[in-house]
Amino acid sequence: MKRSFRRAGLLLVLLGLMLGLAEPASEPSPEVDPPVTEAAAESEVVETEASAESNPTAASAPAKTVSSLPSGSNVAVIPIEGIIYDFTLDSLQRRIDRALADGASVIVLEIDTNGGLVTAALDISRYLKDPTEVPVPTVAWIKPKALSAGIMIAAACDEIIMAPAAQTGDCAPIVPGMNLSPTERAKAFSPIAAEFKNSAATNGYTYATFHAMCVLGVELYLIEHPDTGERLVVNQADYAVMVNGDLSASTGIPIDNSTSTPSGNIPSLPIPGSSNSQTLGPTNTTLDLAEAESYRPEDVGVWKPVISLPSGKSAPNGRFHSGVGLLFTTDDVLAADIGLSKATIQNDADLQRYLGAASVTRIDQSWSENFAGFLTKLWVRAILVVLLAIGVFLELQAPGLGIPGAIALLALVGLFGAPMIIGLADIWHILLFMVGLTLLIVEIGLGGATFGVLGVVGIIVMIGALVISVIPSTGGIPAPGMWNQLLAALLATVIAFVLGGVGIGLLMRNFGNIPGLSRLVLADAQASAGDVTEPTHLAGDEVHGNGHITVGQTGKVLSTLRPAGEAEIDGQVIDVTSLGAFLEPGTPIRVVEVTRYSIVVDAVQES
Question: Where is the NfeD1b N-terminal domain (predicted)?
Fold first, then answer.
């Protein structure tokens, strides 16, 4: 028992060192889809939404034109991949600073993400638009996808370009497992809407495009001014005013959960989660008279629908997105048709030609960030968990700290050290794992006195700590929007524990038949020659080489055999292995097999 506690204590010491040396991870952002409350009145959000698109012709401010930069620019390409969370901003800031120090005159963000924490995306968006932080033009290169939080980051750049077959859009705030009320949904959408509106005004985009990516029921139309040739993307309310000249269509519209069209010129805006028909105040799809009066007279009823898009696709009455049942998501072709994407760029050479750049340099993450990211891949973590389990088991079979123990410690460092480097793991995740490990050690030390309860609880706690240590979180708690990633991590970890258990079971049955296994541990120091009362401790080849132990000899168990441990035979302390059963200290035993690598014993049956 003492030996088990002593070796297991080494694991606790290592965890303590990790806890003491690790810098606390920055406080993670709330979540992909932030929780919402009834605290804010619906009218507050409605007011915010209404203001930005009352006059679409005034919503687009002149932006920096990246493609018109003089030839000879130095372009830095910075990849943004995977889940967007707080560390994404930290890494991006470091790489942009490095690019600027190296003389970059254009920053290109190569985006490949399905989304992430909305607060992290908001922080990145504001950072990119701050001229004191990023004083050079920025380009979002969507390659191959920028969904959810990804399009929010792309919209913050001065220009968007896309790779062939790339996709972007789908940015609705959701909380998995919850059916949000209209007020809750409006509360969740409010900061997203405000950021998109700011990006649209700053960088010359049309907000309606982003609005349709976030809210069901927003129709999108491409219209053109007959005199100037200017083209705009507008929603159905703007279309009614600017094309049909119908100011009366901008009054409040009854809204329900159906997808049918109410009386009037503008279809309803379904609010997911609502069950009763209701009338909302002014929004981007229901403008009131005061807002309609803000249109320039020359815009009312003058604009014409673009019924044939540049790619050749048809758009009946100018409409290219119905808003029914689907959030707006676009590929590179449609994005170019409506002016969201300025070019289709396949590779760095195309990018260099498009920007007229003198050089294109990639600024990747540091080797430590890349290595840490590799170690946090679920299949890699599963291997580390298996190595940890088997390493601990083998270490408990022999005295001292041997190769199995060292492997287990390295696996443990990889499981928690890597996530801490890239800002996923928090200190309390390590503390939680320590609690689970302690419970398991106590269960082992008590020899099953708690009928395995402490051990099972300890394993569950350790699995929980391992799972949540690789999921973007809020204060260490996984964000609601990360449930899919959480389930994937849980499944991978449980499978790894099962595989580790199977490996341990196989070792228990074949411990003495695996060549070289006894050489993976280091024996304790031999008793001093002058201490005649201390029994000699023999193990492995020492036993067989001296020929002291033979089949049929008897003795007693000194430490619990699980199935390996120590026994006293012929006045010597011997490392032995039982036939598979756990034997308690004091149990009489008989040697049943002596192999090159182990001594196998069995309990003596009392007559």
Answer: 75-224
